[in-house]
Amino acid sequence: MQFEVWAPQAQDRVVLRVEDDDVPMERDPERDGWWIAQAPAADGSRYGFALDGGPVLPDPRSRRQPDGPDGLSAVVDQTAHEWQAEWPGVDLPGAVLYEMHVGTFTGEGTFDAAAEQLGALAELGVTHVELMPVCPFPGVHGWGYEGVSLWAVHEPYGGPAGLKRFVDAAHALGLGVVLDVVHNHLGPAGNYLPQFGPYFTDTHHTPWGAAVNLDAPGSDDVRAYLLESALAWLRDFRLDGLRLDAVHALADHRALTFLEELSTAVDGLSGGLGRPLFLIAESDLADPRTTTPRTQGGLGLHAQWNDDFHHALHTALTGEGQGYYADFARAPLAALAKTLTRVFFHDGTYSSFRGRTHGRPVDLTRTPAHRFLGYAQTHDQIGNRALGDRLSATLSPGLLACAAALVLTGPHTPMLFMGEEWGARTPWQFFTDHPDPVLAEAVRNGRRREFGAHGWAEEDIPDPQDPATRDRSCLDRAELAEEPHARLLAWHRDLIALRRGQPDLADPNLASVKVAYDEEARWLAYRRGDLRIAVNLSPGPVEIPLGGPVAARVLAAWNPVEPPGADGVLRLPAESCVVLAGG
Q: What positions does UniProt annotate as the active site of this protein (predicted)?
């Protein structure tokens, strides 16, 4: 078979090692910086490249790292897996996403163990599982955002074969699979890319150091490296979409940006495969151009996370007002109403957290609501807290039910974080497994200093390197036999069924959403077509005027509630919510 590697850093020679054989490589006469060689190999053959007499290094485009990021690469026969059936795909409009970390979704922490639990997600009614990153990273357990070998799959999870089995199992149940990929940085351990070529540049700096090279000399091949890896995930693993981590951290000043190039390529692949594919951006810019079609001057990504909705909902539920929550906490229900109707809270308004004006308004007349994801919890918003505490650690079941109602009946595409559907009490904490003791100690001390600066006692911060930190973060399904967990699960199931069964909840028209609220009384109600959704976040009952006589019936309610009377007033119990039809 032919081996090739982009290694412009090599001065004189590159040697391919396949198993125990060394094969000199030749410069590719048609591609600058590329080296090629022919050598016998089969599925599983170990190989690597030695530059200018240096050590044998893994392939930057490795499809498998059996011994972790520092080991040799392995050949993968992509045709070896026999897919169960043709997969038509599941598109983003109408979707309900479920964010999953493979390593803590089950105690085993593997694709196969996670696949055994997919039937419960199909029964819940979600449409897509969004996997957190699965590229190889040091050790066994970690979040995945310090991955390297961006074409490969973490071996302790089950490697590429395990991921394919997982996708097959999901598709057999009608579930799409989305993968979180990280293009803005690579982990500090096992990252050999700089020895091959200018994958990074000092032209720009990021929180992780030198930026990934998207616009400096040599960036054509770096962009191709990222773009082709993205297409490989979608093509070779039959994934339905990708979530792009922190696209605001991609430093790219070229006229044709990498994100435009990527969205064009993904749309082309979708047409070629005959099934829908999509890209979801995580962006801190509050910029609708991220998801505006390319024909209208945008980047052409298909959706983006909306942290503004999360922040408004979080402050309304918890009363927290520190850090980036400060602006939302001044009038949380007003902030929530704005994000339900206009998407971004910061749409050209002053952000005290940033010390400047931030964001840009969304054109409600031409932007469908499904382009924005709404959620009450994510891996970031739980795991980046000092103790990794979920909302269930401090909120009543009634307030958790209200959060679910706002997420699952809102105009946005809803997303749940694993375990949220039953109010899981297990935390989701920051954990690592760095074999390098120096790096392990740096991560441990950095975490303690970070939260110590915010008033936490350093000894109270969980040690990321302690295996118990990961173990505490694994879901405990024994909770499902207990209350209020069983009731919360049934509530989520009912709300998702309503979302899929009521056309008004699929209406993409953001301008049609009408919201009323009372900041002091702590209630909020909104209308979507023939449906009205009301939540009472206060510790006592409230009366909500719905505007004249209303002939409505109750479709779903957390606590027993009567439809509004002749006076049009809805009387809602404390910490409760309802979905009404009619009126």
A: 245 (nucleophile), 282 (proton donor)
Annotated binding-site residue numbers: 243-248, 307-311, 379-384
What pLDDT is attached to residue 468? 96
Classify domain 2-57 by CATH number.
2.60.40.10
**Would you name the residues annotated as active-site residues?**
245, 282
- pTM: predicted TM-score of the whole model, two decimal places: 0.97
If we measure between CA atoms, which residue out of 273, 283, 210 comes closest to residue 244?
283
Q: What are phi and psi of 177, to 5 degrees?
A: -130, 125
Q: How confident is the model at residue 132 (pLDDT cuts 50, 70, 90)?
A: very high
Helices (H) and strands (E) in the chain, counts: 15, 27
95-283, which class in CATH? alpha beta
Task: Give the separation between CA 348 and CA 359, rounded to whole angstroms.
Answer: 5
* 454-to-327, 350, 377, 431, 560 alpha-carbon distances in Å: 19, 24, 22, 20, 42
Question: Where are the domains positioned within the chain?
Answer: 2-57, 95-283, 513-582
CA torsion sign for 463, 465, 466, 468 is positive
- The residue with tokens 């081996």 is 3
Q: Which of 340, 397, 382 minimizes the C-alpha distance to 525?
A: 340
| pLDDT at 210 (0 to 100) | 84
* Region of residue 174 (phi > 0: left; psi between -120 and 50: alpha; otherwise: beta): left
Q: What is the mean pLDDT of residues 367-374?
A: 97
- Look-up of token digits 């975490």: 447
Contact between residue 310 and residue 378 where contact means Cβ atoms under 8 Å apart = yes
Sequence ranges of the binding site for substrate: 243-248, 307-311, 379-384
Q: Two tokens at 376?
A: 């009450």
